[in-house]
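Subject: for your reference before the review

Hello V.,

The reviewers asked for a structural picture of the protein, and I figured it would be easier to keep everything in one thread rather than splitting it across files. Below is the amino acid sequence we used in the manuscript, unchanged from the supplementary table.
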Amino acid sequence: MRRSRVGVVTAAGLLLAAPALCRGDDARLLNPFGDPFVQATSGRACPVPLGPAYSAAERRIEAHSRAERGTTCWLAGLCAEPNAYRYDAGNAAAAVGALRADAALTASAIWVTAQRRFVYLEGCVGDAAQAARAEAVVKALPDVDRVIPALALPDERTPYAVAAPASRPR
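And here is what came back from the structure prediction:
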């Protein structure tokens, strides 16, 4: 089970890091779409994730994709809102509240990013049970479609792009 979780976590981390890996000399635009990116728990030392970041070229491509992906949910009859990105603020707030309220997660450091009913969890946890707990807590929220965990266990490398020390306040 651990190997498959690590594979999923690694794959999710690579997907989140892909824009950073593909960049040339373009400066990163931190969160140009205003996606919620919030630290939910801070009970252990952990590198701060880069969060939503795009080059100018990636931002243009992403803007087009967001228009398509955002309305697809509504057109398919899967969302009450006409754009899936309208769920972001509420899903982020609900995820942060649920993670903070769970006593089993106090010794974790987890950041939440919400995008079109997907909730990304990045950070560090004490063990596999804590990672599974964080995922389950957020997955139980009513308007969350998918939870994509990128959580490092002790002595593991973080499976996400890390912010430069001066680029994000802790």
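For the response letter, the relevant points are probably these. The first helix runs from residue 2 to 22. Residues 2-24+35-51+85-152 form one domain.

Happy to draft the paragraph if you're swamped.

O.
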